[in-house]
Amino acid sequence: MQSLTLPLALIALLAAGPALADDTWRCNSALVSVGDTTARVVRTCGEPPSKSTTQYVNIPDNRGGYSEVPVQQWTYGPDSGMYHTLRFEGDRLVGITSERG
Prior knowledge:
By secondary structure, the chain is an alpha+beta fold. 22% of the residues lie in helices and 51% in strands. It contains two helices and seven strands, in the order αβββαββββ.
């Protein structure tokens, strides 16, 4: 029975692949990447059809303290049946997920 455990775990991981986070996303023949600013994403991809602020988080600032910043989710799509959700903390892109709609 144990010999089936690894192949089944691998299949489950591959099936979840489309929902895993990515570091880059291609839109309008250009790439946006984790670390990009909101301004760069808008210049590259345009305004998202859906934008929401989900919460606030504390991130380290350059003075050794913390700043409270909004967490935003921008959703683009559907593009060939895929929705792309970009997560921003403050002005920086921190995550990209894609899933079939």
